[in-house]
Amino acid sequence: MHHRSPKVVVALSVAVAALIPATGSAAPPVGHCPKSFPTQITSAEAEAAGVAALFAAVNKNGDDIICLMPYPKKPGGNVIDNTAGPHS
Ligand SMILES: [Ca+2]
């Protein structure tokens, strides 16, 4: 006798659901930092630097990364969320 374990079926359903964004969600996809924003900043690093509010405002996709383009001649830089494709 051969039949599929119900536990396996449930686990696969959960995995698929986790990969598909909720319909109607405005959250952008989690992606990469574009080449022009090469530095990744984590929420912990932002908090340590005292810019947790900035991180939260930029991090629209809700993961743990934003991307920094440092200013060439002064402290700081521009930040965007990591929603770029892998080759941008
Ligand atoms: Ca992010």
Outline the fold blueprint:
Elements: H1 6-19, E1 39-42, H2 43-48, H3 52-58, E2 65-70, E3 77-81
Describe this entry's structure for a reader.
By secondary structure, the protein is an alpha+beta fold. It is built from three helices and three strands, in the order H-E-H-H-E-E. The protein has helices spanning 6-19, 43-48, 52-58, and strands spanning 39-42, 65-70, 77-81. The protein has a three-stranded antiparallel sheet. The protein starts with 5 loop residues before the first helix and ends in a 7-residue tail after the last strand. The model has no long low-confidence stretch (mean pLDDT 83). The site of calcium ion has 7 residues, from strand 2. Residues 59, 61, 63, 65-66, 81-82 line the site of calcium ion.
Largest sheet: 3 strands, antiparallel
The structure class reads: alpha+beta
Biggest sheet, spatial arrangement of strands = 1-2-3
Bound molecules: calcium ion
Percent in helix: 25-40%
Give the topology string: H per helix, E per strand. HEHHEE
> How much strand?
15-25%
What is the mean pLDDT?
83
Choose one word for the global shape: elongated
Radius of gyration: 18 Å
What's the number of helices? 3
Give a count of the beta strands, DSSP E runs of length 2 or more.
Answer: 3
Distance between the termini: 52 Å
Question: Which residues sit in consecutive blocks of at least 5 with pLDDT less than 50?
Answer: none
